[in-house]
Amino acid sequence: MESASYHLTAEPHLHAPVIFLHDRILAKTVLRLIPRRVTPNMVTWFRIAATPFVIWLILSGHYGWGVPVFLLVAFTDMIDGAMARTRDQITQLGTILDPLADKFLVGSMVIILVFRYLNPIIGWLVVILEILFILSAAFYRIAKGPIKGANWWGKLKMMLQVVAVFFVLMALLIDFPWLFVVASWIFGAAIAAAVASLFSHGI
Fold first, then answer.
1. Biggest alpha carbon–alpha carbon distance for the chain
2. What's the number of domains the chain is made of?
3. Mean pLDDT score of the chain, rounded to an integer?
4. pLDDT digit string (tens) for 103-136?
5. Exposed (0-12), middle (13-18) or buried (19+): which is 193, by Cβ within 10 Å?
6. Does 14 map to a domain?
7. What CA–CA distance (Å, rounded) separates 191 from 118?
């Protein structure tokens, strides 16, 4: 799901953010523990910096650590987006940086896990759609100016991708191949959400 992550000061020319239900829940819980001097972009940079560590854990077969660390790093996608929207800290850098961070994390897991344990067609569809997301965002910026924030379909796509990767990792952790089938179906739903997001407004 393509949330936004941003600088400390909002940019007034950007589209007014849509506050989602999970944003309000996080604002009343987790975000209370995060001081305002910690900006959404800092959280996004943490996700980018932590992704190579996640990759190393998975490639090394340390699934016991890899599963919780992957979920923690993926959860920062919800954190930075909720911070940006509820604290009015939206900037154009965040609208560019955050989805790229998501693609770095999920794309790495797709390359490492999906092509090896699931149908390669699923992997290619995910990769091609993510490339289309990047190209459409670039085209939108050139043709129409500032990039709009995340849409609901994009957020659903990201969530489903994370859940699907989680099931693949759990299949490896507990040696339960049936979970690969579950992961394949969830990836299918994520692909459908990606197509809907792409056609809704390009990012």
1. 51
2. 1
3. 86
4. 999 999 999 999 999 999 999 999 999 888 888 7
5. buried
6. no
7. 14
Q: Is residue 8 part of a domain?
A: no
Tens of pLDDT, residue by residue over 63-92, are: 999 999 999 999 999 999 999 999 988 877
Length of the chain: 203
How far is 31 from 21, CA to CA, in rounded Å? 14
Convert the pLDDT of each residue in 8-49 to its tens digit: 444 444 456 678 888 899 999 999 999 999 999 999 999 999
For the stretch 46-60, pLDDT in tens is 999 999 999 999 999
Structure tokens belonging to residue 180: 């690969």
The two structure tokens encoding residue 115: 């092509």
For residue 84, the domain's CATH number is 1.20.120.1760
Tokens representing 167? 């099931």
Question: What beta strand segments (E) does the chain contain?
Answer: none
Give the 3-state secondary structure of residue 145.
coil
Range of the domain at 184: 21-201
Q: Does 6 map to a domain?
A: no
